[in-house]
Amino acid sequence: MRRITSRNKLAVIKTCLYLVDLFYWITGVVLMCIGISAQTKLHDTFVVINEASSGVPVIITFVGVIIVSISSFGAIALMKSNHAMIKVFTGMLLIIILIEIVVGISAYAYREKLHRNLLRSFLKTLDEYNLESQITRGVDDLQRNFQCCGAQNYTDWFNTTYGYLNSAVPSSCCKTVTRSCGRNLSKDTANINQEGCVEKLKKWTEDHIAFIGAVGISIGFAQILGVLLCYMLLRVLKEDYANL
């Protein structure tokens, strides 16, 4: 009777762990898809925002690969009911949880510094507009997508090489694109997006922070639950081994 109860307990714990591991695997695949998609579609925009930011999609993809690898290892460990492999899987989950906590705290602590660095980098990038094709495409895409102009506002363009030579802002600053929409701004700015791109990006991040936080909490919960279930599984396997 005790043996049957132990087997039932083992089956329930393993089923729960399989479900948690499946969720973890799906999360990894989603991150990989997001990273690859961002790298192919938004690379120019990331370069404009910050030279270091162009590596963000690569990092997201890499994290996805790690999560998929760990979850696959966990599935094999569960199928084999191997003590050593389950312990390694548990250790991996604990290490990732600690890394996530450190990264989260660091990002929160340095958020204002990151904002200032973004502003400086963007102002520097604007001066290279129309000189490098990748930067030109990136700036235009960013200004069109976020309906913004310049770093802090449209007047930033007057301090750039493009603004000095053309006495204008790019057409991507215009609400409605016409032949001369970026010119004669001393007379009329009604057709120009007034707000700067850095502030728009900050607002966009704040608007999406709840979703990002919910995803992060879900992943963290799955990891903690996985660690607890692994601990329970190891105990049941140890009891089974002792009763043989």
What does this protein look like?
The chain has two domains: 2-111 and 209-243, no CATH class; 113-197, Cd81 Antigen, Extracellular Domain, Chain: A (Orthogonal Bundle). The model has no long low-confidence stretch (mean pLDDT 81). It contains eight helices and no strands. Helix content is 75%, strand content 0%. The protein has 244 residues and is mainly α. Keywords: Cell membrane, Disulfide bond, Endosome, Glycoprotein, Lipoprotein, Lysosome, Membrane, Palmitate, Protein transport, Secreted, Transmembrane, Transmembrane helix, Transport. It is found in: Cell membrane; Cell surface; Endosome, Multivesicular body; Late endosome membrane. Disulfide bonds join 149-173. Its main location: membrane. This is Tetraspanin.
Layout: helices, strands, pairs:
Elements: H1 2-41, H2 43-49, H3 56-80, H4 83-109, H5 111-126, H6 133-146, H7 161-166, H8 197-243
Helix pairs in contact: 1-3, 1-8, 2-6, 3-4, 4-8
Main location: membrane
Keywords: Cell membrane, Disulfide bond, Endosome, Glycoprotein, Lipoprotein, Lysosome, Membrane, Palmitate, Protein transport, Secreted, Transmembrane, Transmembrane helix, Transport
Pfam families: Tetraspanin
